[in-house]
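Hi again,

Forgot to attach this to my earlier email, sorry! This is the prediction with magnesium ion bound. I've pasted everything inline since the attachment limit keeps bouncing my files.
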Amino acid sequence: MQEAIILVGGKGTRLRPLTNHTPKPLLNVAGSSFIRHQIARLMDAGVEHVVFATSYLASLFEEEFKDFSQDLEISYAVEEVPLGTGGAIRNAARLLRGGPADGPVLILNGDILTGLDLGAILARHKDREADVTLHLTRVPDPRAFGLVPTDEAGRVLSFLEKPKTPEECVTDQINAGCYVFSRSVLSAIPADREVSVEQETFPELVAQGRRVFGHTTEDYWRDLGTPLAFVHGSADLVTGKATSPLVAGPVEALIHPTAVVDPTARVTGGSTVGPHAVIGPQVVVERSIIGRGVTLAEGARIHESVVDHDSSIGRESFLHEAVVGCHSHVGAQNELPGRLRLSCGIRIPARGVRVSGTAVACPTVH
Ligand code: GDD
Ligand code: MG
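Structure tokens for the complex follow:
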């Protein structure tokens, strides 16, 4: 039986306020929660049982899948206190059904959008008689990731999580957050305390001379853990740059049938517009995520941003790489600075914020 563990217990702090009430893997991406895209890929690869390693807002995962009727068994390994990535794997391994003879287990971070061929990494693991096989990818700036240098045969030489100094940046080859573990290795991780798979388990396995290999590919890959990566990942799914069994085909934008979009508005670049959203005249939405019940007034421009559910953006306001939390209101003619994150329920009055050179007339008489 092919089984998988998905690590979904993190707090998703870099995606706040979107993750204030929703765990990162349950955020909506290209029309479905992100975890559903991952599940669909796993099912396509023949996975029959998935264990979710949950902690933060754990009950919402069971809520999400309570009516799931497809041919996949789902179990939940809940951590009252987060056990770290290694502790989470060991804790989730208790719920695996198969025995040692049942072949290796797939383990995935819950925020990885990837085109990796899961069958290929499983086959590679088997061919090399590996203890662990890590999916590796190359990125222009590896500092936010785990660095994994390998020798010519693909054997992992060391594992360096989030290098701090330029000297530590020994490679641009990074841990892509998808592993194949032989079952016997799982039981070697301590179960009773917090353990980081990246900082403890992998370096220890390498030091012990265990058969730890990398599987480096050039497939599409993105960690959706930051706001910009999140909007880009969603747009890539809509435009077909990234694929998911749940997204029908490349389109310019994914607009929910209950949303109302004025014919003079332009929604492009792989944007998504959620249920009951209202997009006014002359609005431009580019490569952005517009949540359920959001209103965008005439002439608003939304660029590479997320506007979470039940918020509104006033006339001629401009958002660039911004995140607007739910139930917020940005009044007319605001220009939000790039990378701004607005908490839930915030109200910005008309012409309250501007970043470009054009001075705003004083709205009150002193
Ligand atoms: N159950 C559980 N318990 N899950 C956890 C815990 C925990 O204590 N801590 C983190 N997770 C989950 C998160 O929910 C996420 O799905 C996954 O583990 C990875 O955590 P992130 O917070 O997203 O880590 P990262 O992106 O900084 O780094 C990781 O991913 C990179 C690739 O995207 C590391 O694995 C890096 O080595 C890797 O390069
Ligand atoms: Mg991540």
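Residues 109, 111, 223, 225 surround magnesium ion (ligand 2) (CB under 6 Å). The chain has seven helices and 29 strands.

That should be everything now.

G.
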